[in-house]
Amino acid sequence: MLDSASKGLFHLLALITPFKTLASRYGMRRPSGFARRFIAGESTSEAIEAARAVEARGLLITLDHLGESVDTLARADAATREYFEVMQQVVDSSISRNISLKLTQLGLTVDRATCVDNMRRVLDRAEPAGFFIRIDMEGSAHTEVTLETFETLWNLGYRHMGVVLQAALYRTEQDLERILRLGARVRLVKGAYKEPRTVAHQHKPEIDDAYARLMQILLTRGEFPAIATHDPAMHSLAIDWAAEHGLTPDKFEFQLLYGVRRDLQASLVSRGYHVRVYIPFGREWFPYFMRRLGERPANVASVVTSILDERRNTIWNK
Ligand SMILES: Cc1cc2nc3c(=O)[nH]c(=O)nc-3n(C[C@H](O)[C@H](O)[C@H](O)COP(=O)(O)OP(=O)(O)OC[C@H]3O[C@@H](n4cnc5c(N)ncnc54)[C@H](O)[C@@H]3O)c2cc1C
After folding, report:
1. Interval between CA 296 and ligand 1 midpoint (Å)
2. Strand ranges for the chain from DSSP E
3. Distance from Cα 124 to the centre of ligand 1, integer Å
4. Among 108, 191, 254, 260, which is least packed, fewest CB within 10 Å?
């Protein structure tokens, strides 16, 4: 119950403008801003610096230039060009070339054909430079059209891309079969969005059961599976399943979010597994940040303390 209720509460909070204004004002302002735990910074150079630090710990990275729900073609075009910029800066740095992005950032809900074109522009620049592009999965209203767009791009011959599937959705087992038939790469997550009970499991035990089942299918038949979770029980299950089925650690990877369970990130690497850290950055960090709070309400206490400290300091320094 709490799982779904907490996601719902944070979804509502994200819509309240004064809360957004307050959080945006204080969240990233100082090096100690509370949002910096989950977000690497607002600029590409800050993200690259964070990526270097992550790679220095023996981990892999994927960079997400945050943005979603773009509502005009001009903004979708701007987001596409921003990705060109990000890729150029990544090429100029020595970090590895892996990007995650959302299709609504490239105009999916404005005009699907333009979104496909924008995605092609990104993929055409990415391929010669050796980038892998992962298409994140958004709320269930976008699941079908995201998968159709992915299939369209796949049928056009793009292979340096993968997609994300959410275990919480009832439909995912069929979607997994659909992507396995293509031979494309899947990142399996539990699902970060507040979804109605008509389309998704609402309670953690059921979501965990679904995740475990789908993960076993993916590990057995998938193309370089990405097991994206911070749940140690799922890590153990994946490791045991892989060992029993002769899947060596170079055939799959774990993925975790920047700022979440660094202890587990380090422990998996020390045991010889590939671990990729998802590094979000950019000015549009608020919705992503709220999803992270919704997953773990205990995070809220540290945010509230941090806002109060900031306000107190601001008042004293006036
Ligand atoms: C690399 C990566 C990419 C992702 N991409 C997508 C995507 O494209 N679409 C999508 O819907 N979702 C995505 N997610 C989010 C995912 O769906 C879950 O919402 C998120 O990972 C939390 O679930 P969990 O699997 O860690 O398990 P849970 O059962 O929720 O958590 C297990 C444990 O992890 C820790 N933990 C989990 N979340 C947090 C947090 N926010 N802060 C602190 N500790 C935490 C806690 O210790 C918790 O007990 C992604 C997750 C990862 C790791």
Report:
1. 9
2. 60-65, 98-101, 132-135, 161-166, 185-189, 226-228, 253-257, 274-281
3. 31
4. 260
50-68 pLDDT per residue, tens: 999 999 999 999 999 999 8
Compute the distance from residue 195 Cα to the ligand 1 centre, in Å. Answer: 15
Query: Could you read off the pLDDT of 9-31 as tens digits, one per residue?
Result: 777 777 777 777 777 777 887 77
In the residue annotation, 3 being an active-site residue is answered as no
CA distance to 43, 189, 205, per residue, from 49 (Å): 10, 26, 38
Is the pTM for the entire model greater than 0.85?
Answer: yes
List b or e across 147-169, with b for residues whose CB sees 16 or more CB atoms inside 10 angstroms: bebbebbbeeebeebbbbbbbbb
Looking at residue 294, what is its pLDDT? 84
- Whose CA is closest to atom 49 on ligand 1? 231
Does residue 187 carry a catalytic annotation? yes
The CA distances from residue 218 to 48, 166, 174, 185, 255, in Å, are 31, 12, 12, 9, 15
